[in-house]
Amino acid sequence: MTQALEPRKAAPRRHDREILALAVPAFGALVAEPLFVLADSAIVGHLGTPQLAGLGIAAALLTTAVSVFVFLAYATTAAVSRRVGAGDLQAAIRQGMDGIWLALLLGAAVAAAALPTAPWLVSLLGASDTVAPHATTYLRISALGIPAMLVVLAATGVIRGLQDTRTPLYVAVGGFALNAGLNAALVYGAGLGIAGSAWGTVLAQFAMAGAYLAVVVRGARRHGASLRPDAAGIRACAQAGAPLLVRTLSLRAVLMIATFVAARLGDADVAAHQILLSLWSLLAFALDAIAIAGQAIIGRYLGAGDTDGAKAVCRRMVQWGIASGTVLGLLLAAARPLIVPLFTTDPAVEDALLPALLVVAASQPVAGIVFVLDGVLMGAGDGRYLAWAMLATLAVFAPAALLVPVLGGGLTALWWAMTLMMLVRMATLQLRTRSGRWAVAGATR
């Protein structure tokens, strides 16, 4: 009896080791990424309020431009991990190089568009006459680093697909340290002001891209993979990423609608909403680490033809997601009295923030499931379904959120609408995973 049960016990433990080995370093890399903006803000903030405001506007535009192309990481991870599972490392790296070439092309196009339109983009966000010159300067210089930023996304996807999340952690930490040092030296040492901060970020991004390319090129030479651009391969990468682009744009639309509604509720509500959104995003980093592990592991299992193994590890990751979300939610609820004073002492903002924080805390177990299943389906290359599911979610969320001010609801009601959005996402993702149609075996989907 004991011997019969042993394999059942051993499988979850093996899955736990796989998940932890990839998720823990991935979490470290994810946390390091937002530190770039924090370091820039801390250094530029001492130059003056107009410079800091200009940085905020330019950073918002850059973040939006780059995050739209996050599919470069997700789609590449899925494609590379499948070929790793199939035992064809040469094809895996070749697939990764196609993603990197696509990133270079897209990066060059975005940079070329951003340079002449920078003043118009800055004015579109409502920058004042004193802030606009600083925002334009930072945006124009930083736009030169967009190709490197997109290469970092694609190369991160390659490395993760190769079942390595430690290298992205090392590169992210090294990039943060270099960025902080260069910013301080160029802003104050060289006296370049906000332009120095932009140049420091550009140089750090190119250094990170160079570090990733060195790793990928070394792997390509070891396994005899070509480094030359392949038009058919680049086109295939773009086609695979297109549905994930739709998914990402739909998710960005959800966040924009939520901010629009919060602004209509009043100044205190929109201030509290920004705090909630920051905390929600921070918690998402922890849960997204499991999703990244899911992308890499699921792709490898399916590439090896082991659909049963892929489904088993999916079930285990869902358990991890629920447990992680529950712990994070309880911590957030318990820490409310400590968290609120860190962000505001305005009684009106506090009154709006405190009840809505409980809603965010209560939704974390749902978020844990959503992030995990999102990663599972990305790892399976099921981007088309993810696109349609996110569009359906947007169609439910938009009217619910827009009705909040019409019906006299406040910020708490808006965050219940956000929770509804997560519940719809969970329902659509569970529907797909339970059907089993996502688990398509083979080196390609």
From TrEMBL:
Pfam families: MatE. It comes from the Bacteria. Its main location: membrane. It is found in: Cell membrane. Keywords: Cell membrane, Membrane, Transmembrane, Transmembrane helix, Transport. GO terms for molecular function: antiporter activity; xenobiotic transmembrane transporter activity. GO terms for cellular component: plasma membrane. The chain crosses the membrane at residues 55-80, 100-121, 141-162, 169-191, 197-217, 244-263, 275-299, 320-340, 352-373, 385-407, 413-431. Belongs to the multi antimicrobial extrusion (MATE) (TC 2.A.66.1) family. NCBIfam families: matE. This is MATE family efflux transporter. It comes from Streptomyces globosus. The lineage of its organism: Bacteria, Bacillati, Actinomycetota, Actinomycetes, Kitasatosporales.
